[in-house]
Amino acid sequence: MSFDPVDTIENRTYDEIQVGDSASLTRTLRPEDIQMFAIISGDMNPTHVDPEYARSSQFREVVGHGMWGGMLFSNILGTQFPGPGTVYVDQSLHFDRTVRIGDTLTVTVTCKRKFDHNDHIIFDCHCKNQDGEQVIHGSAEVIAPIEKIKRAKVTLPEIKLSTTKTARYEHLLEITAGLTPIPMAVIHPCDTESLKGALQARDRGLIDPTLVGPEDKIRKLAEEMGLNLYGCQFLDVPHSHAAAESGVALAREGLVEALMKGSLHTDELMGEVVDKATGLRTERRISHVFLMDVPTYPRPLMITDAAVNVAPDLATKVDIVQNAIDLGRMLKIAEPKVALLAAVETVNPKMPATLDAAALCKMADRGQIKGGLLDGPLAFDNAISVVAARTKGIKSVVAGQADILLVPDIESGNMLAKQLEYLADALSAGIVLGARVPIVLTSRADSAQTRTASTAIAVVMAHAKRKPGK
């Protein structure tokens, strides 16, 4: 068997190594090296990972973990000299200088002494930076391999560091910068996450909440969870149905500018919202958008409709698309790109989603849908991957750059949104559009953080709906 030398790993046996032989390895410390080492080791010392703290420390900046440099000795001993088959016996290191981001370290191990009776070798270990200054020195004792080993390098999984969900959550809340809190009715917040979500939104200066539901039950829950209800108004009603009816009435009368769903079924709330006589209908069909922050996608991604319209026809899809485009523009996307999803990227009379996509594109051309760029039908890969679109010969200003994904029906949309949330670590926020006021509509399983993120969108929408100067 032959190997490409670049893709192989080969050792030097005990008999091949002579006293005085040495080998070296050079590495430059990057910010991601510090982060990765902290994650693997669990060493979250703020000297290494907190720039604000580090500025007040003796070093005045973030510095690398000492054992990151020490780890390089393990690298060279295990992969080069002696290499595969080496067994560590002892390691002694002394740390002379700190390592800063951008420092280039050269580690050298030199054979100092050999022991023929047990194949042990003692190595001198030295590490210097780019200025020739000693950073680490010490010694290592290993059992050297006695058999020649040459192997193909094992391909390891690629590891990418992505922004944490908490950081992405904070970034989403930045869309409300400079906006005043809005009055919001929280409908039946009678479980922990829905009540915490409302109170977190209050604490972040997003809303002035009116808690609509059985007051005694809500207060008891707050007491059990150690939650403070300061600043909250109450509308005491006996049960969830009455809460939905009363909350919608508050919005209809202009006493609140948004609603938030608590621990009641979506149908119970939306039944009141869409009631022709007492609800919050407008000339538009009501629809839902999931706003997703996906770590592997370079821009926010809206998925619609995955929660309200079960099997929308063409006329309903027109409103769904227009609602999403209007939201995108409120979120400072100048001309949202809308990908009309189907299983294929060609029009097929046997696949209704492709026919609807073609019709929607033509309607946009004729000005029946305004403010966005539409293209479809597009399969999911073509909608979010430029490479996939080019491979299939698709020329489009939308393909690979979509801001909005219009799904064929509620089942495909709901599965897509939840796959991104649970398998791709996406941050999810949910909002109902097309009613007189924005409605925060999340799953009862969603966290308080998700509810607060959704509230941020409602705040932006509420301010956009206000008349200038109001």
Task: Describe the protein.
The longest helix is centred in the last third of the chain and has 18 residues, at 448-465. 34% of the residues lie in helices and 23% in strands. The strands form three sheets. Strands 10-9-8-11-18-17-12-13-16-14-15 form an eleven-stranded mixed sheet, sandwiched between helices. Helix 6 (192-203) packs across helix 15 (448-465). It has helices spanning 31-41, 46-49, 51-55, 66-79, 165-173, 192-203, 215-225, 240-252, 266-273, 314-330, 352-365, 380-384, 386-391, 410-423, 448-465; strands at residues 8-10, 22-28, 87-95, 104-115, 120-128, 134-143, 150-152, 182-187, 207-213, 233-236, 258-261, 287-293, 301-304, 337-341, 373-378, 404-406, 427-433, 439-440. Helix 7 links the parallel strand 9 and strand 10 (233-236). The relative contact order is 0.11. The chain has 15 helices and 18 strands. It is elongated and about 95 Å long. Among the domains are: 5-152, Roll (Thiol Ester Dehydrase, Chain A), CATH 3.10.129; 282-434, 3-Layer(aba) Sandwich (Isopropylmalate Dehydrogenase). It has 470 residues and is an alpha/beta fold.
